[in-house]
Design brief:
By secondary structure, this protein is an alpha/beta fold. The chain is about 35% helix and about 15% strand. The protein has three domains: about 35 residues, no CATH class; about 180 residues, Alpha-Beta Complex (Aspartate Aminotransferase, domain 1); about 250 residues, Aspartate Aminotransferase, domain 2 (3-Layer(aba) Sandwich), CATH 3.40.640. A seven-stranded mixed sheet has the order 4-12-11-10-7-5-6. Strands 15-13-14-18-17 form a five-stranded antiparallel sheet. A four-stranded mixed sheet has the order 1-2-3-16. The chain is globular. The chain starts with 11 loop residues before the first helix and ends in a 34-residue tail after the last helix. The site of 4'-deoxy-4'-aminopyridoxal-5'-phosphate (PMP) has 15 residues, from helix 6. InterPro entries: Aminotrans_3, Aminotrans_3_PPA_site, Dat, PyrdxlP-dep_Trfase, PyrdxlP-dep_Trfase_major, PyrdxlP-dep_Trfase_small. GO terms for molecular function: diaminobutyrate-2-oxoglutarate transaminase activity; pyridoxal phosphate binding. Pfam families: Aminotran_3 (PF00202).
Amino acid sequence: MAVTESVRGETSESAGARAAHEGILRRQSARESAARTYARALPIVPVRARGLTIEGADGRRYLDCLSGAGTLALGHNHPVVLEAIRKVLDSGAPLHVLDLATPVKDAFITELFHTLPPGLADHARVQFCGPAGTDAVEAAFKLVRAATGRNGILAFSGAYHGMTAGALEASGGAFDVRVARLPYPQDYRCPFGVGGERGAELAARWTESVLEDPKSGVPHPAGMILEPVQGEGGVIPAPDGWLRRMRQITADRSIPLIADEVQTGVGRTGAFWAVEHSGVTPDVMVLSKAIGGSLPLAVIVYRDELDAWQPGAHAGTFRGNQLAMAAGTATLAYVRQNQLAERAAELGSRMLRRLQALAGEFRCIGDVRGRGLMIGVEVVEPEAESTPGARPRTAGLAAPAGRAVAAQDQDRHPRPAAPELAAAIQRECLRRGLIVELGGRHSSVVRLLPPLTISDEQANAVLDRLADAVDAVSRDYAAHDGSYQPHQGHQYRGDRTDRTDGTGRAGRADWAM
Ligand code: PMP
């Protein structure tokens, strides 16, 4: 096909690609549900991907720090994952087998058990679930209810466990009589206004008193579910000491402890499983996302003594996805053999340090936190008064090993969350070829979940683009007297001429694994 140059310097080929891209987006918004999520903030049409990089139908490339909501431990289309999938396809093995035994599944279980925290590995059972994290959460609740004969579940403020009824009940936004809500410790917006070790201690005492007080209104529960680092809740790492207290409190009262490692697992936080930071062995672990090596897979693993439920107690048609198990085996083995958890810890600390420096520069960054390559930047109102009664920030207070606390807010109180500024930063990132996610109670936390295979060079490129985006939004905010008003050039969709700044076009290095 002859490629002609238009007056704007655009070739007929790229004009065609742009039209196809825009047509797909237009049809999506006309045909897909109002409940669609990521697609609203990220109007891109991925057609190719490798490692950290996604290429859109319009030819633009992006550094992907969303990673399928934390699913892609090895990034997109890692060679070991592709090879594992091809091997199954070429072998003629059945792709769909319900929960029957197969060599592929056998190998997956062997590798999974190999990675489990000591203390669980030797006495573990695994239940394959419908292939979503939320179904595994449901399975965990059923399991502990069957094992204890009790009904109630303890869960935490800010939690996210999924979208099916039971998982939703246990998530932060819900009200339900079967779930009792307890405070999750956090430094920046500590519910007790003190943060640090003291805040975590008070949170633990509250939990203890709820269980001790016969008139607390909370009957003896069937289990407690927690995320070792709250992801959707705003990237809030639980202090190791608090997690150990939760283990002690539940063990003393024969309450099974369920660790939801759907997002934190497979090296993400700098340990293979995030509970390992504290040395805690949960009774049940809920696993999904990265364990399927980018394909859908979800399981619970649990202490065999809990295995008291009936055959068929948790069924489901799609529990035998052979391709996902093969991709998952390859991913688990690669992360283990290449010490990618250690790499996540080391690179994550460096990225946090750079982001903390950025927080010193920009008043709209209230807090920087995370663990390993699960990183959050909380965006706040630059000019607002600090929240009365909130504790002054004290650098490093009670920061557990491997976890950083922002130093920039030392003498300030937390300011109100700024979801609009956070959304503006997300848009500006996208314009610069960087995909980030928003999370947190008020959707004001910019989240980075890069693949564990990200190189130093790529990590620098991510942080450069993010810094540039924060700078652009801060300038706009200042120029418009305290409100962010994107000028025409900031409207990403369909505005290709505006993208000739070159920042959105990734270099060849971006394709490196
Ligand atoms: N638990 C946690 C901690 C999660 O982060 C998520 C998804 N973000 C889920 C459960 C639910 O997983 P899924 O979306 O696969 O149902």
